[in-house]
């Protein structure tokens, strides 16, 4: 006697594979193409941070209240990255639905695998970038005397 699950189409599993594949390609594109939105230079960023710290310290010394935090602007990079996470999540959910509906296990595993791989890839890349940033900041702090000594002539 043949099982009914063999005759059924694996619609949720196949849709999950499509969503997972699109999420993975989008994640690979985002991390290989670099930022799409225009980015300020490092000098501009550091200058703005220093000015904000100075203004905040002056307000604190004068006893003035600090301004309310402002919401971050959603740029194209942030929108695409969020879309990659959402598509990967949809792929995993569709894979689970396919598993519950007893669809072909290979199709279901592929849907969940592609969605999980898209999420895992993005998390891995961000972890590597954070570690690299900490190493660079540590190097700058360790050599701050040499950097400033070259500027001041001391």
UniProtKB/TrEMBL annotation:
Keywords: Membrane, Transmembrane, Transmembrane helix. It comes from the Bacteria. The chain crosses the membrane at residues 12-30, 79-100, 107-140. The keyword Membrane applies. The keyword Transmembrane applies. This is Inner membrane protein YidI. The gene is yidI.
